[in-house]
# Entry
Amino acid sequence: MTLYLVIGPPAAGKSTWVREHAEAGDLTIDFDALANVLTPAALDSHKHTAEVKAVARAARQAAIDAAVVYADDVDVYVIHSTPSAKLMEHYRGLGAEVVTVDPGPDVVMDRISRERPWQMAQAAKKWYSERGLDTPAVKRPTTTERGMGWDHQQHRDRLLRLHIDGTPCWWCERPMFRDPARNFDGAVLEADHSLARVNGGTVADRLLHHRCNRQRGRGTRDHLRPAVASAPEAVPEGEATTLLAWPGAASGDGG
Ligand SMILES: [Zn+2]
# Structure
């Protein structure tokens, strides 16, 4: 058994390297992969909550400990982007062979700017500065450039995490679910700006059904939304009696 410790800056291609080198039956212990299976609806495969991180760290340690005991005939690949000096010592004590995957600051920063949370640039910068290397600047995108991009995605992720299944949609009052199959339109929930963006709303602050969000559009017909249209106070006089013909209501016992 060889224990490979695969290190490198974020977005270096460590997982890819392992995929290309590990053979069937080998063990791969990857923090991101562990974290992603610990929580439903992994919203971003590179960002984890504190709880998920803590449990993933413990799981990684347990997996490494077990691998050292049980992996006689297979190799073990541990992806650990920036282990502390103490951990490096621990891995070396286990006889680990250290593999550094590092395509260089230009490639890494370019990748981060295109496909990763821009905050990851800090970790990459740190990796290179510790090795005496400069990194090209990754420009944080302006609000205009972001548009419905990263920040909006962050707000939607947050809203989805906080969402309680069955909460009625503001537009149609039908229940909203994380699982698209359970929504009336079979689609994923969307983040909406209660103050429409054309009116200066900058933060998505609630979820709506996909179809309802499209119907709302720029918010010019908010007063006509189905939720209002079906509410008793909006029902024309003539029809109100039908709505109130509820057992008890007619006999005047106040329900
Ligand atoms: Zn709806």
